[in-house]
Amino acid sequence: MGLLAWIVVGLVAGLVARAVVPTGRHLGCLGTIVLGIVGSVVGGTLASVARGDGFDVATSGWIGSILGAVVVLAVVRFADSR
After folding, report:
1. What is the rounded CA–CA span in Å between residue 42 and residue 3?
2. Cα–Cα distance between 68 and 71 in angstroms, integer?
3. What pLDDT, on the 0 to 100 scale, is given for residue 13?
4. Average pLDDT by consecutive 10-residue portion of the chain (82 residues)?
5. CA 8 to chain centre
6. 73, 23 Cβ separation under 8 angstroms
7. How far apart are CA 59 and CA 44, in angstroms?
8. 52 — phi, psi (to 5°)?
9. How far apart are CA 35 and CA 27, in angstroms?
């Protein structure tokens, strides 16, 4: 996947995740892109574990990126509440 595609997927996944799990934090555009990219890695890794492929750090598509970003935000929100 090209750099521009990573940025677009990261931005969209980050925006959707922030709409689903509001944290009250201002991430900005770059933070939202990083959230989406990290979410893609988390989503791909969780998908490979769920498939039974073992622990394989991978990236995922649109849905996996969004779900991974939601997981990342949920963990951050839980950690903030403690």
Report:
1. 18
2. 5
3. 94
4. 86 94 88 94 89 78 91 90 77
5. 13
6. yes
7. 4
8. 90, 15
9. 9
